[in-house]
Specification:
The chain is of the alpha/beta class. It has 9 helices and 7 strands. The protein has a 7-stranded mixed β-sheet, sandwiched between helices. It is globular.
Length: 243
């Protein structure tokens, strides 16, 4: 892989069954010359399988959450970048499998200078086991904070310029990262565009693990939104100065 302008970053936890297909599809995208998988404390062979598929793998010794994995992946790319021509950053979920090949439309507006961040809108909806509470919370929070009407506010398939990514740091904790990215970049006048793509990931189920996952999503999105309310944000800034 050489001569491209885009790096793919894939946070992954226990995705050994799908990560190889995702890596191979991502590596074949036009302009992609680097795929970084961040193995976020997996207990299976995710990292080994990803490396065998052609990815560079960075491993967390314990699970640190999606936002931390994104930051780790972006730092790994930065260390490999040329200082005067940083790569665009395309974040993809590990369970996309072969559908990751359809991510090219996310890169194109960023490459053309028409957007600073693109967000995927899946044209084929996967039926989820939840009731949309977290999606509604995120969508309403983004609308209230910025006026932006997000179609799929929690979609993790996003392409950003390096400048936009750095402007959004530090990222919000855990599953609040997508909601916060959208709010923070729009408030800083970066251009955000949603792009329809033919991609799909594994649907969440209805067992206790899926319910715990949704509870964590709800918590993290709520925390991201609360911390971005003007009065709360002012208090947090003052608290950091006092420390």
């Amino acid at each position: 892989m050489s001569g491209g302008d885009t790096a793919v970053i894939i946070p992954a936890v226990n995705e050994a069954d799908r990560i190889a297909a995702t890596v191979k599809a991502a590596a074949a995208l036009p302009g992609v010359d680097l795929v970084v998988v961040v193995d976020d404390g997996s207990s299976d062979q995710t990292g080994r399988v990803a490396r065998a598929a052609g990815a560079r793998v960075v491993r967390h010794s314990r699970n640190r959450g999606k936002a931390a994995a994104m930051e780790t992946g972006a730092e790994a790319v930065r260390l490999l970048d040329q200082e005067d021509s940083p790569r665009h950053l395309l974040f993809l979920d590990a369970d996309l499998g072969e559908t990751a090949h359809a991510a090219a439309p996310l890169i194109e507006p960023v490459r053309a200078g028409q957007a600073d961040m693109t967000i995927a809108v899946f044209s084929t909806r996967v039926r989820l086991g939840g009731h949309g509470l977290v999606v509604r919370l995120s969508k309403e929070g983004i609308r209230r904070a910025t006026g932006f009407e997000a179609a799929q506010p929690l979609n993790g398939q996003r392409c950003l310029t390096r400048r936009a990514f750095e402007a959004a740091r530090p990222l919000a904790f855990g599953f609040g990262v997508e909601t916060a990215l959208t709010i923070d970049l729009l408030r800083r006048k970066y251009r955000v565009r949603e792009v329809e793509v033919e991609m799909a990931h594994r649907a969440t189920g209805t067992d206790w693990r899926a319910q715990v996952h949704r509870a964590r999503q709800l918590r993290d999105v709520g925390l991201a939104l609360v911390s971005r309310e003007p009065l709360v944000a002012l208090y947090l800034r003052r608290l950091r100065r006092w420390r």
